[in-house]
Design a protein that fits this description.
The chain has about 140 residues and is mainly alpha-helical. It is built from 6 helices and no strands.
């Protein structure tokens, strides 16, 4: 397979794996740490209207979902890529960062969580995913 096609496939697979991990952790999280009474975590309007009811524990799984989803996607993409492995892993981090920024704009969250999430869950996890995939040996 030509390297360009292998790299494109790596990016698509990395995005897909990252989204699956993210969605899975968000789904599991709302069953492990129940949302406040009357809040439907699957309804964007319910979240917007009731974010003031959320405490620190309610932000644990969203952060883990964002960080581990990005990590898994970046690792997958870097492992599959033919070349530019670290750059592709970082591109996955940037892709998920854009999603994180969009989410912050749609659903209000405390400033501490917004900063932690946007600064630590995306680009650093993209870099770490690339490094864990062994990008030191690649172009």
């Amino acid at each position: 397979m030509p390297p360009i096609f292998q790299n494109i496939l790596a990016v698509v697979a990395g995005c897909a794996i990252g989204m699956i991990v993210n969605f899975g952790l968000i789904t599991i999280g709302s069953n492990v740490i129940l949302p406040p009474a009357g809040v439907d975590p699957q309804d964007l309007n319910s979240l917007k209207e009731n974010m003031h009811l959320f405490s620190f524990k309610h932000y644990i799984f969203p952060f883990l979902a964002h960080a581990l989803g990005t990590l898994a996607g970046a690792f997958t993409a870097a492992k599959m890529a033919a070349q530019y492995k670290l750059q592709i892993a970082l591109a996955i981090g940037a892709f998920f960062l854009l999603g994180g920024i969009a989410m912050v704009m749609m659903v209000p969250s405390p400033t501490w969580f917004t900063v932690l999430d946007l600064v630590m869950a995306y680009i650093p996890m993209g870099w770490l995913g690339g490094k864990l995939a062994g990008t030191d040996k690649s172009v």
